[in-house]
């Protein structure tokens, strides 16, 4: 695909975006905020798979920043499912797209005031096994119940 883009640029001297219109290009992957769709986490993962992808992975601080800026730029509302859970083994958060481990702490996870003072999410134990880009937590990561209804954030 990259080769084709270079060819198009060379021949037509036009800009080439690696992603379809309306999709966000971050580090060579394409992301779509499905603001018009709402469903539980597992349905959201299947929804993204039908378009040949999966729920989104946000793997670096730079990527998280790009998502945050996109949300602000387009005034997106609601919270978005990300492609990670700890359903397999409680407390072990894995990205579904490549089975890699989710980084903990700053700058990804929201903070909350617990019995021992301020601490990072996740805090929901076995009740909260799915990862949300949480509008109510300034779009930081939060672990929530997988049956809640939120928008899919797909990547391909
Ligand atoms: Ca959990």
TrEMBL record:
C-type lectin domain sequence ranges: 26-155
Gene3D superfamilies the record matches: Mannose-Binding Protein A, subunit A
Signal peptide stretch: 1-18
Highest taxon above the source species: Eukaryota
Keywords assigned: Lectin, Signal
Molecular functions (GO terms): carbohydrate binding
SUPFAM superfamilies assigned: C-type lectin-like
PANTHER family reported in the protein's UniProt record: C-TYPE LECTIN DOMAIN-CONTAINING PROTEIN 180, RH26557P
Name the record gives this protein: C-type lectin 4
